[in-house]
Amino acid sequence: MLAALSERGIEVFLPMREVVSRWKDRKKKVWLPLFPGYLFVHHEDTPENRYRVLNLPGAVRFVGFGGSAEPVPDSQIDAIRRFLEAGLSADPYPYVRLGTRVEVTAGPLKGVVGVLVEKRRHLRFVLQVDLIRQAVAVDIDASDVRPL
Q: 48-84 burial, b if ≥16 CB within 10 A, otherwise e?
């Protein structure tokens, strides 16, 4: 589907993460989508462009409310790209409703806003993609964030 969308002139972003898959006899590194079932497309929202996307096998619908598509904010897409480009180990994380919103003040994620949570005695920085109700988490030093 990625190639078909690109051939149609539609910008596509599929964030991937590398994981170790274990079988009985061996381990192997494989790439999996960070948000299974979601593919980000960037295009002018016209009926023709919607048809060009939804006409492909595997496409179901655009995410949105009341029958209209809602764009994921560019700041959240940019933050996901920065997570991946920084080479940080990013894991899917349950969408967090409550928690302290923080901004990263140092390191490769400086300026990114998210939620600080605790996971097994380690601090995790969670970036929420509100529209698709998905999130991604990375380990972070508490001294590198400030509350908003």
A: eebebbeeeeebeeeeeeeeeeeebeeebbebbebbb
